């Protein structure tokens, strides 16, 4: 049975044919991490961060550039919509559990990098700090998941957690709108 060309595989092929040795999971994690840290959605700064991850001096191709901007638009839509759901760019269930677990670890690594490069306030809540600690721990356990029902269920639990973690941090780091100056009331 042929493996379907998932968004993950399509992105991996695009990066690979462009000579970029970075997994789509790490790239997506980087984007979500920087977005959750309050970096905003200005394309040029995102493209600069991505290029740094690529360790490339070369100009990125239009295909890669367009894919990166499309990915950012998707993430912006997810983070700013009322759905409160993030779709992770990870291999499909057709991939082996160790491969999916590795991608999960790469995603966490990317997220932590993106968040660390862009977060400036250092005033996270206890929950926010715990989320970052959890992500750091998840990034380390990629070799611990083995092909088994328990392994599958652990993977699914971690994946569900990672779909809400960016939203929690994004909500926390969003700058609250300055309250309107109180107007004296006329009686």
TrEMBL record:
Which segments cross the bilayer?
none
Q: What is the lineage of its organism?
A: Bacteria, Pseudomonadati, Pseudomonadota, Gammaproteobacteria, Pseudomonadales
Q: Which family does it belong to?
A: Belongs to the UPF0149 family.
**Protein name from the UniProt record:** UPF0149 protein CJF38_10695
Which InterPro entries does this UniProt record tie to the protein? YgfB-like (IPR011978), YgfB-like_sf (IPR036255)
């Amino acid at each position: 049975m042929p493996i379907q060309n998932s968004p993950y595989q399509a992105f991996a092929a695009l990066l690979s044919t462009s000579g970029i040795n970075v997994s789509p999971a790490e790239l997506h994690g980087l984007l979500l991490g920087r977005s959750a840290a309050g970096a905003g959605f200005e394309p040029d700064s995102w493209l600069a961060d991505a290029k740094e991850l690529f360790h490339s001096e070369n100009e990125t191709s239009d295909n890669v550039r367009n894919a990166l901007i499309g990915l950012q638009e998707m993430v912006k839509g997810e983070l700013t919509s009322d759905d409160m759901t993030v779709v992770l760019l990870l291999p499909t269930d057709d991939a082996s559990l160790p491969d999916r677990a590795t991608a999960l670890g790469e995603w966490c690594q990317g997220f932590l990098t993106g968040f660390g490069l862009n977060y400036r306030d250092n005033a996270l809540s206890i929950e926010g700090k715990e989320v970052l600690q959890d992500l750091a721990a998840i990034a380390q356990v990629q070799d611990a998941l083995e092909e088994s029902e328990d392994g599958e269920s652990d993977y699914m639990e971690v994946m569900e957690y990672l779909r809400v973690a960016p939203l929690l941090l994004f909500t926390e780091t969003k700058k609250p709108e300055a309250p309107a100056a109180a107007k004296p009331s006329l009686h």
